[in-house]
């Protein structure tokens, strides 16, 4: 997907910075996690941006802002967790996040193009290079469409969609062809649980706080304070 992003925008002004934004949009449709986006961008593109002379503060701000698209573009983990807790249609949340996600990418790309550093402008990629990069990226890029299509048509639930996407990644990685990758599976599973726990901790704390407010009748108490203050002012 990085190669595909480079063939699309690598020749433009601030090409590598624009690669960050478009790759983040592609990867958001696979990971659904802003934390995962930050992790992969920091390890892959941030060192290259440093070598091309981009300011570290600009690089950090760009990666942080571009990674927010993962909370909007399906399959967003935050949308799944919110849908479960609030009893809202997850498919509807996914559909509602597509357009805002593209708007965030569009504005981030435009701001970088007109106001960001120039960077290194590479040679425009040929059609053959674009075709080769697309062939390599087509399978992971199909995952959001598989998930959205399956959920909206009722073929499987959001939980089953995650399992299907994970199985597709495993087959794409082809561990049978590279047996040494099996020993990395426990580490990858542990990292997956760690990344998934980040939004879950936030949502869990918010749920506990909401339950506490309801149990202690927080809104009624605050309303009583306001009424008392208003009566005091009138008197």
Structural class: mainly alpha
Cα radius of gyration in angstroms = 22 Å
Q: Beta-strand percentage?
A: under 5%
- Mean pLDDT reading: 77
Give the helix proportion (percent range): over 70%
**Strand segment count:** 0
Q: Could you list the spans in which at least 5 consecutive residues all have pLDDT below 50?
A: none
Helix and strand run: HHHHHHHHHH
Q: Alpha-carbon distance between the termini?
A: 68 Å
The largest sheet, given as strand count, sense and whether it forms a barrel, is: none
Overall geometry comes to globular
- Count, helices: 10
Structure description:
With 235 residues, the chain is an all-alpha fold. 77% of the residues lie in helices and 0% in strands. The protein has ten helices and no strands. The chain has helices at residues 2-9, 15-31, 34-51, 56-66, 77-86, 90-115, 127-152, 158-173, 185-215, 218-234. The protein is globular and about 75 Å long. The model has no long low-confidence stretch (mean pLDDT 77).
Describe what is shown at a glance.
The protein is 77% helix and 0% strand. It is an all-alpha fold.
